[in-house]
Design brief:
Helix 2 packs across helix 19. The strands form three sheets. The chain has a four-stranded antiparallel beta sheet with strand order 5-6-8-7, sandwiched between helices. The chain is built from 24 helices and eight strands. It starts with a helix and ends with a helix. It is globular, with a radius of gyration of 25 Å. The chain has four domains: 214 residues, no CATH class; 64 residues, no CATH class; 135 residues, no CATH class; 82 residues, Glucose permease domain IIB (Gyrase A, domain 2). Strand 7 and strand 8 form a beta hairpin. It is of the alpha+beta class. Helix content is 63%, strand content 7%.
């Protein structure tokens, strides 16, 4: 029985942690996308004709520089994943793990190149042969383009090798190569051998992913609906990053030739078109999985839900929840971070969250049917301006405020109806909020830089001895505990936690909000 429990814990910890490691390169990707979007739009001939004061050497040079810098993340995205995954997963010696990730990815491609060379496929400049074998330049090496999937495989394998060998003890004569120095050595040997097998195995993976892409694209407008709904439904479990990465960076999100180069994945296609000087319009088949689909719910729907929760709150409690709702709306519309609002109703009414997920998916579908072509990742006001308005009416950005306004009305009345009809205890509807002044005063005396009573949170988690591991994502603490029955949900919520997600008998997530990193750091301080 204990072994079964350990396997369960490992499963949840691994996939949640794996999804979290994606956020480091994706955050850079989002920023680089904004740089690329601003640079490419303001340097375009159409914008210069509309705004003549930008048509000068200095402005064109600055915008071109922004485009060039912004393209960095997309040129080296697989390598960044291969580095970020072992960096994020490793418990100790993270620098060694990251270094080994780069070594492993480079060695894998060198080994693939060696196999292709002795097989007589390389060297060649014949585009037909290169395309038939899916050969591209990877880190300056002619190799099979395994893309993000190959990088994820390398990152996971390097992490396993790192955890297994980072503390290895070798005989005295070889002691210099022991410990964490052995990790990049065993990585080189292992990935060198794996690289010889990739040309034999990869075609089967490529066909499977292409088949998945064919299925997604054959569903037409229902593809974005399924994606948008599925991504929201997976979010509470922290597993949505896996689905998102699959669509954004693999053949499942489509394949297209851009500037004489074949690229795969919805986001990769969009960014390639952004940086391609001959592109005149963005591909709707790619952008339908990106920012535009989120905008109806993010810019209109969730603010409408927040207004409904405010209206349905008890009059004497509205001033207490106003700041919470406003900060959630700002995080959603400006930062694209929706959890502070979503988790206000997820736990008290899962049916409302399912409705929200369906409306999000329908938003994806509607924007696709209207041929809107606004890309990037966040679905916030920044994406709307940079990738919509600045790129002209060809993106059909003018549909966004219209659909967002409709979604605002729908969310407001749907949420108001369900909250009042079924007496859902959204914030401000609890009677006990009237008498929490004493707790608020006590908490304010103990609050630290994070604004949270961290000692009380630690106590509500069962104390320091009950915590096995502690981590965080954008808005949530992710914990493994010895005894989950010692965790007091009501005390956590009394100390400003938005909600608690119990994954199994040892793993849980505590939804904090945008200040989660500070809370996690302070908890770590108490633990250590």
């Amino acid at each position: 029985m204990p072994n079964k429990i350990k396997t369960k814990v490992t499963f949840w910890e691994f996939f949640q942690s794996l999804g979290k490691t994606f956020m480091l390169p994706v955050a850079l990707l989002s920023f680089c996308g904004i740089m690329l979007g601003i640079g490419s739009s303001l340097a375009s001939q159409d914008v210069r004709e509309l705004l003549p004061f930008l048509d000068n050497w200095l402005c064109i040079t600055i915008f071109t520089w922004m485009s060039k810098i912004g393209s960095f993340a997309f040129s080296f995205l697989p390598a960044m994943f291969a580095i970020a995954i072992p960096l994020g997963l490793a418990r100790e010696d993270k620098g060694v793990a990251a270094f080994s990730g780069f070594v492993g990815y480079a060695v894998l491609n060198l080994s693939i190149n060696f196999y292709l060379t002795i097989s007589g496929i390389l060297p060649t400049e014949d585009s037909a042969i290169l395309r038939a074998n899916d050969i591209q330049s990877v880190l300056g090496i002619q190799s099979i383009n395994t893309g993000i999937l190959g990088a994820i495989f390398v990152g996971i394998l390097v992490y396993i090798l790192h955890e297994r060998f980072r503390a290895i003890r070798l005989p005295d004569a070889l002691a210099f190569f022991g410990g964490n120095r052995f990790v990049p050595i065993i990585t080189t040997l292992t990935l060198g051998i794996v690289g010889l097998l990739i040309p034999l195995i990869w075609p089967f993976f490529a066909k499977a992913i292409s088949g998945l892409g064919y299925i997604v694209n054959s569903t037409g407008a229902f593809g974005p609906l399924i994606f948008g709904t599925g991504e929201r439904l997976l979010l509470p479990f922290g597993l949505h990053h896996i689905l998102v990465a699959l669509i954004r960076f693999t053949d499942a999100g489509g394949t297209m030739e851009v500037c004489n180069e074949t690229v795969s994945g919805a986001l990769t296609i969009f960014q390639a078109q952004l940086s391609c000087p001959t592109t005149t319009a963005f591909s709707e088949s790619a952008t339908r999985f990106l920012s535009q689909g989120k905008m109806p719910s993010f810019l209109g729907g969730l603010p409408g839900a927040a207004l409904a929760m405010y209206v349905c709150a008890r009059p004497e409690n509205r001033h207490k929840i106003k700041g919470l709702l406003i900060s959630g709306v700002v995080a959603c519309t400006v930062g694209g971070i929706t959890e502070p609002l979503e988790f206000l109703f997820l736990f008290v009414s899962p049916i409302l969250y399912v409705i929200h997920a369906l409306l999000t998916g329908i938003g994806f579908m509607i924007m696709s049917l209207l041929d809107v072509t606004i890309g990037n990742t966040d679905g916030n006001i920044i994406d709307f301006v940079v990738f919509g308005i600045l790129h002209g009416t060809a993106t059909k950005w003018y549909w966004v405020p219209v659909i967002a306004a409709v979604w605002f009305v729908i969310y407001f009345f749907v949420f108001k109806f369900f909250i009042l009809r079924f007496n859902i205890k959204t914030p401000g509807r609890e009677i006990e909020l009237q008498n929490d002044d004493t707790n608020t005063q006590i908490n304010s005396m103990i609050q630290s830089k994070s604004g949270y009573n961290v000692p009380a949170i630690l106590e509500a988690l069962g104390g320091a001895d009950n915590i096995v591991s502690l981590d965080n994502c954008i808005t949530r603490l992710r914990l493994s505990v010895k005894d989950i029955s010692l965790v007091d949900d009501s005390k956590l919520k009394a100390n400003k936690a938005i909600g608690v997600v119990r994954l199994n008998e040892h793993n849980l997530q505590v939804v904090i909000g945008p200040q989660v990193q500070l809370v996690k750091d302070e908890l770590q301080h108490y633990l250590s």
